[in-house]
Design brief:
Blueprint: E1 2-5, E2 8-26, E3 32-52, E4 57-62, H1 73-85, E5 90-96, H2 107-122, H3 129-139, E6 151-156, E7 160-167, E8 171-176, H4 183-195, E9 210-211, E10 218-221, H5 222-225, E11 230-231, H6 233-240, H7 242-253, E12 258-261, E13 268-272, H8 275-282, E14 292-297
Parallel strand pairs: 2-11, 4-5, 7-10
Antiparallel strand pairs: 1-2, 2-3, 3-5, 3-6, 6-7, 8-13, 8-14, 9-10, 12-13
Helix pairs in contact: 1-2, 1-3, 2-3, 6-7
Bound molecules: cytidine-5'-monophosphate.
Length: 308
């Protein structure tokens, strides 16, 4: 978070991948219970929040043609914060969009979380992470996670977030074939496919090998997590869009330790041990018509070193 002036703050809004995404039962409120390990990476949007003397919220977006009213999650987040603090301040919100939209990378949710964080700081609300996450939950299911990143186990509709520590860093190659997948549609497709599979038993949830010996968030190692990476949307979306499977297989042949669909798609990520191998694997990918590729490093907080 960077305070630009006394009434303006700039916040990075990183994207995420779901290293594991299990979609469980459909709930009476229409949402699905989830069991997901989510992890942020450095490639990010930027959100700038500034109070001005006017009234109302004015949102501008650079880098993507997005709605600038309450259909935009950042706008909705700002509305919620102002309603909660009962302030009718004039506000300018500017989103520098880099993350692809409707891509499974959580860009809109991260912009919303960044907006809440920036406003809470500017207004000096003193809100805790969990208070901000509760507000975020009203804006979207993926928003609470971003207050607990870089890594967390996410359950319920998305509101039950348990921070994890994932050691150490990896490099991701993100490839998007230029297809936009709407999240509600993806959930509907998944539910329809499951409804046709009579007698299907829900698979067992993976067991995370965690190190209980450490203080703070439980420690998970990439080495243990890599074989567990899966996404319930992947087989369904790969059938809808065979190009997604083509990309996943291409990433594997180009040396990815694993490759998987991000969220409900349509971005596919490959995991690499270092930057060089990710960049070599990326070569030429964005020459394919409509395809875009990005190399980014995963975020992680090294545990504080105990000097005693
Ligand atoms: O909460 P959000 O607005 O991001 O969710 C978008 C849609 O995705 C919901 O309307 C619902 O159809 C689906 N969804 C779900 N279960 C979740 C999260 C989202 O069914 N846990």
């Amino acid at each position: 978070m960077r305070r630009v002036t006394s009434h303006s703050i700039e916040v990075a809004a990183p994207g995420k991948v779901n290293l594991i995404l299990r979609v469980l039962d459909r709930r009476p409120d229409g949402y699905h219970n989830l069991w997901s390990v989510m992890h942020t990476f450095e490639f990010a949007d930027t959100v700038v929040v500034e109070f001005n003397g006017r009234s109302g919220i004015r949102l501008t977006c650079e880098g993507a043609d997005l709605p600038t009213d309450s259909a935009n999650l950042a706008y909705r987040a700002a509305e919620r914060v102002l309603a909660r603090v009962r302030r009718r301040k004039g506000l300018r919100l500017h989103v520098r969009k880099r993350l692809p939209v409707s891509a499974g990378l959580g860009g809109g949710s991260s912009d919303a979380a960044a907006t809440i964080q920036a406003l809470a700081a500017l207004l000096d609300t003193g809100w805790s992470r969990s208070e901000m996450a509760q507000l975020g939950q009203e804006v979207g299911s993926d928003v609470p996670f971003f207050f607990y990143g870089p890594t967390a186990l996410v359950e319920g509709r998305g509101e039950q977030v348990t921070p994890l520590q994932l050691e150490a860093e990896r490099w991701l190659l993100l490839v998007n074939p230029g297809v936009a997948i709407s999240t509600p549609w993806a959930y509907e497709r998944l539910a329809a496919v499951r409804a046709g599979q009579v007698g299907r038993m829900p698979g067992r949830l993976p067991r995370l090998a965690v190190d209980h010996g450490v203080e703070g968030p439980q420690l998970v190692k990439w080495h243990d997590l890599l074989p567990l990476i899966e996404n319930d949307f992947a087989p369904v979306m790969e059938r809808e869009y065979p190009v997604l499977r083509e990309i996943r297989e291409l990433l594997l042949t180009r040396g990815a330790q694993t490759a998987m669909l991000a969220g409900s798609g349509a971005t596919v990520f490959g995991v690499f041990g270092n930057e060089r191998s990710a960049r070599i694997a990326a070569e030429g990918l964005d020459r394919r018509s409509g395809w875009k590729a990005w190399v980014t490093r995963t975020q992680w907080n090294p545990a504080p070193v105990c000097l005693g």
